Amino acid sequence: MKPKLVVLSGAGISAESGLKTFRDAGGLWEGHRVQDVATPEAWARDPELVLRFYNLRRDDLRKAQPNAAHRMFAELESQFEVNIITQNVDDLHERAGSSRVLHLHGQLMQARSTKNTEPIYDLGTQNIQLGDLAPDGAQLRPHIVWFGEDVPAMYEAVEITSQADVFVVIGTSLAVYPAASLVHDIPDRCRGFVIDRSIPYFRGLSSFTMIAATATNGVKRLKELLTRS
């Protein structure tokens, strides 16, 4: 049986594919405050702005390609049972070849009804416009977990994390909850690694091996360490 490698990935891993992050934009996302584009209140106040914002992010994502860090995690499936738990709403892990990806915050390339959380609809090459309706007659909205909304995938994430033999944090400042709390759910026997250009301060990381590097260089180093052990 392959050892279980669990990866908690954040925006830093996709930055090398050209996708911008909150952290690198001085607290703004493409010139917008998070309160204006990523909350239920923003949707209620100005759904057209919110849809336009996510349509532009979708256009950017369609042009982006997985980078070497994404691909290396997919390649590690030959040696490990790799589970990706990602805070990202892009599909770059899947496009790189990872077979087990859990999205905590939803997916940019999907939509759902404003009335019902299920079913989920794949957008493909389409965007969402005001007036686009789900089969239940309600307006379609991005399948994104906005700030202030529940994160239903956390239950599965905790279960996956609790079985990890190796747990890797990459490209996240561990500032967003409840995702950041997953570091407390790893087993005592688990080996922990953090890969980031700026290693986050977090009380739960004292036993982790720190790799201060970009995502691509950091995952190369991780593979060396895992192969050596």
Characterize the structure shown.
The protein has 229 residues and is α/β, with parallel strands linked by helices. Helices cover 29% and strands 22% of the residues. It has helices at residues 11-15, 34-37, 40-45, 47-63, 68-75, 92-96, 154-161, 215-228; strands at 4-9, 28-29, 32-33, 81-86, 101-103, 106-113, 120-122, 140-144, 166-170, 191-196, 209-212. The strands form 3 sheets. The protein has a 6-stranded parallel beta sheet, with helices on both faces. Helix 6 links the parallel strand 4 and strand 5 (101-103). Helix 5 packs parallel to helix 8. The longest helix has 17 residues, at 47-63. The protein is elongated, with a radius of gyration of 18 Å. It starts with a strand and ends with a helix.
Low-confidence blocks of residues: none
Biggest β-sheet: count, sense, barrel?
6 strands, parallel
Cα Rg? 18 Å
- Strands ordered across the widest β-sheet: 5-4-1-9-10-11
Computed structural class: alpha/beta
Count of DSSP-assigned helices: 8
User: What separation lies between the terminal Cα atoms?
Assistant: 17 Å
Order of helices and strands: EHEEHHHHEHEEEEHEEEH
Helix % is 25-40%
